[in-house]
């Protein structure tokens, strides 16, 4: 119910439902509210949801990253940086993002900026080609999703262009011969907004279906749209 109300933008009603529950709300309930607050840019209520999540799971890095992403999406880079500083102060270990795709009876795993794959040079060329197409179509890099403290905008754009999902997509397009088969990718964390938009545009430009299972849900990209309707 909290998720449904959040999707509809009924944040006050969702909050009232949470505080009136006959049982103590868990982190999943507060997380649903926080996700809605990010979508509808309600920073104040999102911060309250974070505080409750933190009380329940103080060492879960995902809680901090959710708040940091919410601040970044709202253009509050200083506040976003402060949240990451709080993670370091409390020795909260951030789980590195990774994306996996199967090919040739093997699981190929990529991390952001990965250069360890045997086909790294070919993958980089393919990714560069895709990025040029996507950016040329009008989908500009959303560098607010770069979590590192970097001020140079060109460096930030280069970093986000090499996220693990993009590397996995480039690899999948490069090695898959059957154009009717969708690319199936698994991500251990929540897909960022820039990679989500990237996958949408690639599905349209390349005429390929892409399925990405992230920490939250399945995303089925086809002909420029996603099954989640841009809410996840």
Automatic annotation (TrEMBL):
GO terms for molecular function: RNA binding; zinc ion binding. GO terms for biological process: RNA modification. It comes from the Eukaryota. It holds the Pfam family E_motif. Residues 141-232 form the DYW domain. InterPro entries: DYW_dom, E2_motif, E_motif, PPR_At4g14850-like_plant, TPR-like_helical_dom_sf. Belongs to the PPR family. PCMP-H subfamily. This is DYW domain-containing protein. It comes from Linum tenue. The lineage of its organism: Eukaryota, Viridiplantae, Streptophyta, Embryophyta, Tracheophyta.
């Amino acid at each position: 119910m909290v998720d449904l109300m959040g999707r509809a933008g009924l944040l006050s009603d969702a909050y009232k439902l949470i505080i009136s529950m006959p049982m103590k709300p868990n982190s999943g309930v507060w997380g649903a509210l926080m996700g809605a607050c990010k979508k509808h840019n309600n920073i104040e209520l999102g911060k309250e949801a974070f505080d409750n999540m933190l009380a329940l799971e103080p060492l879960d890095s995902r809680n901090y990253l959710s708040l940091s992403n919410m601040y970044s999406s709202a253009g509050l880079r200083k506040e976003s940086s402060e949240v990451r500083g709080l993670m370091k102060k409390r020795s909260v270990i951030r789980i590195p993002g990774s994306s996996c795709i199967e090919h040739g009876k093997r699981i190929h795993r990529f991390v952001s900026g990965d250069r360890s794959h045997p086909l790294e040079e070919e993958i980089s060329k393919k990714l560069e080609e895709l990025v040029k197409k996507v950016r040329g179509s009008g989908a500009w890099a959303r560098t607010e999703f770069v979590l590192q403290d970097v001020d140079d905008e060109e460096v930030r754009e280069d970093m986000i262009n090499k996220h693990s999902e993009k590397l996995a997509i480039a690899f999948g397009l490069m090695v898959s011969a059957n154009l009717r088969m969708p690319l199936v990718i698994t991500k251990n964390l929540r897909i960022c907004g820039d990679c989500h938009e990237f996958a949408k545009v690639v599905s349209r430009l390349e005429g390929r279906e892409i399925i990405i299972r992230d920490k939250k849900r399945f995303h089925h990209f086809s002909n420029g749209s996603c099954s989640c309707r841009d809410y996840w």
